[in-house]
Amino acid sequence: MTAPIIEMQQVNKWYGEFHVLRNINLNVARGERIVVCGPSGSGKSTMIRCINRLEEHQQGRIVVDGTELTNDLKNIEAIRREVGMVFQHFNLFPHLTVLENLTLGPIWVLRKPKAEAEATAMKYLERVRIPEQAKKYPGQLSGGQQQRVAIARSLCMNPKIMLFDEPTSALDPEMVKEVLDVMIQLAEEGGMTMLCVTHEMGFAKAVAHRVIFMDRGEIVEQNKPEEFFSNPQNERTRLFLSQILH
Amino acid sequence: MASVTESLPPPRSTTGPIAWVRERLFSSPLNTVLTILAVWLILMTVPPFIEWALIGANFTAATSQECRAASGACWAFIAEKHRLMLFGLYPFNEQWRPALAAVILVALIVLTCMPRFWNKTLLPIWVVGIIAVGVLMWGGVLGLQYVENTNWGGLPLTLILATVGIAFAFPFGLLLALGRRSRMPAIKTLCIMYIELIRGVPLISMLFMASVMLPLFLPEGFTIDKLLRAQIAIIMFAAAYIAEVVRGGLQAIPKGQYEGADSLGLSYWQKMGFIILPQALKVVIPPMVSLFIAVFKDTSLVVIIGIYDLMQSTKVALTDPLWRGFSIEAYVFVSAIYFIFCYSMSKYSRALEDRLATGHKR
Q: Which residue of B has its CA nearest to A81?
């Protein structure tokens, strides 16, 4: 087996006195799709946000595609080019059109010519099924459409890894499916390493290679989805699953 | 209970002049009192002013005696003295030069305000414009007579101090605002010290310091031009306030915007230039324009170090023994000039807000 694309070794992080990540060890293989779940405040978002250094870890090692995350800005920027991120609140740029949102990174970070960046952007907008919205501003779109634009924006950077931080939590219920469909389609195309923090267990069952359960800053349990849901080992996992699956 | 589909009775008439008057002017006892008070105030002030300024005014008198006989304003004074008020001590026969310079400055500002010029052509236009203004004002080349800047004055000087002041203070203020939010403690401390120090001192005392104290610290025989010192004081002063206004805008930008930009791998300057500052500046257009208006008016404080701006040259015009006693007319005239510039800025800021609002609506 080839080297893992993400390696986290004994990662620890504190917010002041609060120990938010405790001895996280996680290896993610190339092309692997992982769903991270757990109660709120369990550190799952913090963990994936450490991977592109939106949060700083204080102890341990994180290596992404052979580059270690340190204070070195060059390393951080290099890793961020490889890692796309989709946020709970989309974080689209409201003063730019959809197309401008999608081409900003490719033009200024990847130094692509404008025409090429726009062609790529349109290709991804078709894939998330909203090419007709290219000239609009994010504020004119629905939540589900905005989140699909955000996914397209990340894909335009041609990342090796995609991080999803509760991508459907801020959406109205009727819009969750359109976003999940796009994510499932992305997963089915294969090749993309995906880490997704979500409570959408249907999505986990459909596409995940591995489900990780976190609680109080620790990885409590991880397993293949069928095993994870049918036969949870840990008491805390069982409690959590009983609460979200009803 | 009525069924949901049953139509409601039509609302009371809400159109027509009578409904408008009732609704807007007399909708409650307090509003009625306020309306009457406002009408009374207008009647007390506006007709007498029109009587003074237009009906009883003298526009053409050749001497001040003739003018004094008029019951209203003596606008002949302005006709007699407007060149001195507008251009100060600039040589009389050369005054077309500051006039043209003022026109160029206003044109530069107007161009800058037009979105279609918001591109790479703007900087060269400004460089050429400012050089043209400099050549016109100083002269000494192209057959123009050399005029020392101690002889500059009036409206062109006010425009130069304000325009150059804002043009330099704005980028400087942006950097200070970013520096104040920097993670690097040395830069942050320096910026905070600068901003707080400057904000803690009145502009007058900074102008005094620039004109009186600064030469004491400079080496013997090394002098900086008085006008330049005043200009630098204005830039330094305005920058500190601009920095604080911009900081307010930066704080209004949600953390997610920084994270969105970071996650794309944008560098610090790309993130600030493309994502954060455009949104932050949009938020602070109203206070920023207020500040620009204040800077424009504050340039009149340079009188205390003996620079003849619009206000000071007006005062000089009033000292002519042949034309004494027309200070009201003179100040109404300069006030009108100041008002035209400030009101234009204010109107433009409203238009700009409307124009830029599209992207920000959620």
A: B265
Q: Looking at the domain assignment, is residue B5 inside a domain?
A: no
Q: Locate the chain B residue with the closest alpha carbon to A103.
A: B264
In a domain, B23, yes or no: no
In a domain, B247, yes or no: yes
Beta carbons of A204 and A198 less than 8 angstroms apart? yes
Structural domains counted in chain B? 1
Domain that holds residue B278: 74-356
Looking at residue A61, its pLDDT comes to 92
Given an 8 Å threshold on Cβ–Cβ distance, is B275 in contact with A94?
no
Tell me, yes or no, whether B238 lies in a domain.
Answer: yes
**Tens of pLDDT along B217-246?**
777 666 677 888 888 889 999 999 999 999
Q: B260 vs A87: CB contact, 8 Å cut-off?
A: yes
| B182 CA: distance to closest CA in chain A (Å) | 15
Q: How many Cβ atoms sit within 10 Å of the Cβ of residue A105?
A: 28
Nearest to B271 by CA among B254, B256, B258, B252: B258
Taking contacts as CB-CB distances below 8 angstroms, the residues of chain A near B260 are: 87, 91-93
The residues on B that touch A, with CB distances below 8 Å, are 256-257, 259-267, 270, 274-275, 278-279, 282, 356, 358-362
Q: Flag the least confident range among A208-222, B40-54, B85-99.
A: B85-99
Confidence at residue B94, expressed as pLDDT on a 0 to 100 scale: 81
Inter-chain contact B267–A77, Cβ cutoff 8 Å?
yes
Tell me how far apart the alpha carbons of residues B344 and B296 are, in angstroms, rounded to a whole number. Answer: 12
Chain A residues with beta carbon closer than 8 angstroms to that of B270: 108-109
| pLDDT per position as a tens digit, B136-173 | 888 878 777 887 877 887 888 888 889 989 989 999 99
Task: With CB atoms and an 8 Å threshold, state whether A54 touches B262.
Answer: yes
Kindly report the backbone phi and psi dihedral angles of residue A195, in degrees, each rounded to the nearest multiple of 5, phi listed first: -120, 125
What are the two backbone dihedrals, phi and then psi, of residue A6, each rounded to the nearest 5 degrees?
Answer: -125, 130
CA-to-CA distance for A183 and A185, rounded, in angstroms? 5
- Find, in chain B, the residue whose alpha carbon is nearest to that of A75: B265
Condensed to tens digits (0 to 9), the pLDDT of residues B27-57 reads 888 988 999 999 999 999 998 888 888 777 7
- Looking at every residue in chain A, the average pLDDT score rounds to 91
Could you tell me the sign of the dihedral formed by the alpha carbons of A61, A67, A72, A78, in that order? negative
- Predicted confidence at residue A103, as pLDDT, reads 95
Reported ipTM exceeds the 0.90 cut: yes
Q: Assign residue B81 the CATH number of its domain.
A: 1.10.3720.10
| A246 compared with B93, residue with greater pLDDT | B93
